Prior knowledge:
This protein is of the alpha/beta class. It is 34% helix and 25% strand. It binds the ligand O=c1[nH]c(=O)c2ncn([C@@H]3O[C@H](COP(=O)(O)OP(=O)(O)OP(=O)(O)O)[C@@H](O)[C@H]3O)c2[nH]1 and magnesium ion. The site of magnesium ion has 2 residues, from loops.
Amino acid sequence: MQIILATSNKGKVREIQSLFEKDEVVPFSELLGPMEIEENGSTFAENALIKARTIFEKLGRDDAIVISDDSGITVPAVNGEPGIYSARYAGAGASDKDNLSKLVDELKKRGMKEAPAFYTAAIAIVAPNAEYVVHGWMHGKAIDTPRGEGGFGYDPIFVPEGFDETIGELDPAIKKELSHRSKALKLAKPIIEMLRSQHA
Ligand SMILES: O=c1[nH]c(=O)c2ncn([C@@H]3O[C@H](COP(=O)(O)OP(=O)(O)OP(=O)(O)O)[C@@H](O)[C@H]3O)c2[nH]1
Ligand SMILES: [Mg+2]
């Protein structure tokens, strides 16, 4: 049974598919076409559930397993910004570059070359008569000078704990080991397998 992924973020699709077998995970847009989902929750978990529930209901199938990811970067020294607003930190429709530049500006405004930061990923799993949410975190620091082209979003200014390079500079295999998303998916997988066995 395929897993349907309730995200439009290509970076997430790439990273989540890399943690499953080939073709095991399909982005919802391949089944339903493109669709904007209003994320009006007040936490990562609420937004992840909104996204997974919306796609599950749109599919209208009694054998679907839908997963979603709501994630973002939090910088305590910048009032905990951007947090759940990471995708629109620089305004509605902002690009990854705009959002990253706004966070760099906020650090510079405070005379900070770097500040502790962490990524959060909330993965929601919605299936017939079942809803779960799991979380993963990745701690490190945000720096004021983007380095590297790898990853996506804020990765060029995020240096994970135990490293000197940014995620943008590091081998993707390292992010796959360390990331908030990989940690959350490691917790989600046994739940997904249980749900699959119930519908086998
Ligand atoms: O550099 C990054 N490395 C990451 O690993 C990562 N994970 C999330 N983010 C950022 O957090 C926001 C997510 O917002 P978000 O969860 O609403 O996703 P999204 O709107 O992009 O797609 P969707 O899943 O909602 O369809 C976006 O701005 C992402 O850039 C990351 N940035
Ligand atoms: Mg979003």
